[in-house]
Amino acid sequence: MALASSRVHAHSASPLAGNIPPVLIGTLLAVAFWPILKSMFGSWFDPPSNMEHGILVIPAAGFMVWRKRVKLSQIPRTHSAWGLFFVLWGAGQASLGMAAHWTWISRTAFLISLTGSIAAVYGVGVVRELAYPLATLILMIAPPTFLYERFTLDLQLIAGRLGADCLELMGYPVLREGNVLEMVGIKLSVEEACSGLRSLVSIVFLCVLYNHFFVRGNLTRAVILAMAVPIAIIGNVGRIVMTGVVGQHNHELAGGFAHEALGYISVVAAGIGCIALHFLIVQIRKMWRPRQA
Fold it and tell me: Domain span at residue 184?
């Protein structure tokens, strides 16, 4: 029985899988998808796309994989026919996306082929263990444009209305017309960047990193990710309020570099808000457990 078991294990384990280094797989995929990857890398440095965090996604995912190196070494390496299926799926999707100029479709095809390659060479167990880092890589791809077109205006109006209410509570007279706020001597226009949608991806990335390293429990992680949306809106309302207050004292500071700097500050403040939310959940759990006991 022991001899038969060892034979089965020797047959299921793939000697080829153990001999192919991950660097070779990554290189082959990079060569095959180079036009798509080049376009994606360029979007990280394109100001209108607001994807500055994209350059940090790959190192962050790589560090997550490195932390799992002990568990990965203990997983038997096997071939998976499903892996080859997903490799071909990714290739077909990339071709379709490039032919139809569907940017998001072609870029996500790379992740599909990457996942398929890992499954084909190393097995489904390795993919299962790498699910979190692989899912994190989605954040290096700018969301599809139809999402911006669908939600940007609504979020602009919400941010503008909340910003005007906050300024009035602080004693500043404000006249709001749609997404335009008129104050004494200045006129603030709540543009797309102030809607909260474009900074949302960066805030979600911060939440994903924080969840991986500091949060335990899938429910708590899900709550923090879900709250990233209102936190992003609140952060951009704070940006509008700060711009309005600063603009009342110095009109030149209401735009240009100072306004952009406030945008980065709002993202950092939103990240701090996610951390504060986690600590609040932890404290509530500590208070709730003795009552249940």
Answer: 146-292
State which H helix or E strand residue 176 sits in. strand 175-177
Distance, in Å, from the CA atom of 202 to the CA atom of 232, rounded to the nearest integer, reads 9
Q: What is the DSSP letter of 117?
A: H
Note the pTM of the prediction, 2 decimals.
0.78
Cα R_g (the chain), whole angstroms = 24
What average pLDDT score do residues 199-218 get? 87
Identify whether residues 133 and 174 lie together within a single domain.
Answer: no
Same domain, 100 and 229: no
DSSP three-state, residue 75 = coil
How far is residue 275's CA from residue 210's CA, in Å, rounded to a whole number? 8
Q: Encoding tokens for residue 220?
A: 């708590």
Binned at pLDDT 50, 70 and 90, residue 177 comes out as confident
Q: What are the strands of the beta sheet with 175-177, ordered from one edge? A: 175-177, 180-183, 186-189
State yes or no: pLDDT of 16 exceeds 50: no
Kindly tell me the burial class for residue 162, based on how many C-beta atoms sit within 10 Å of its own C-beta (0-12, 13-18, 19 or more).
Answer: middle
Residues 15 and 92 both lie in one domain = yes
Number of domains in the chain: 2
* Residues contacting residue 8 through CB under 8 Å, at least 6 positions apart: none
Residues 6+ apart with CB under 8 A from 144: 103, 104
Residues with Cβ within 8 Å of residue 195, at least 6 apart in sequence: 151, 152, 153, 155, 156, 159, 236
Tokens for 111, please give them.
């992740």
Q: What angle do CA 227, 230, 232 make, to 5 degrees?
A: 100
Pair (137, 236) in one structural domain: no
Out of 110, 142, 174, a domain closes at 142
> How much is the pLDDT for 3?
38
For residue 41, list its beta bridge partners. none
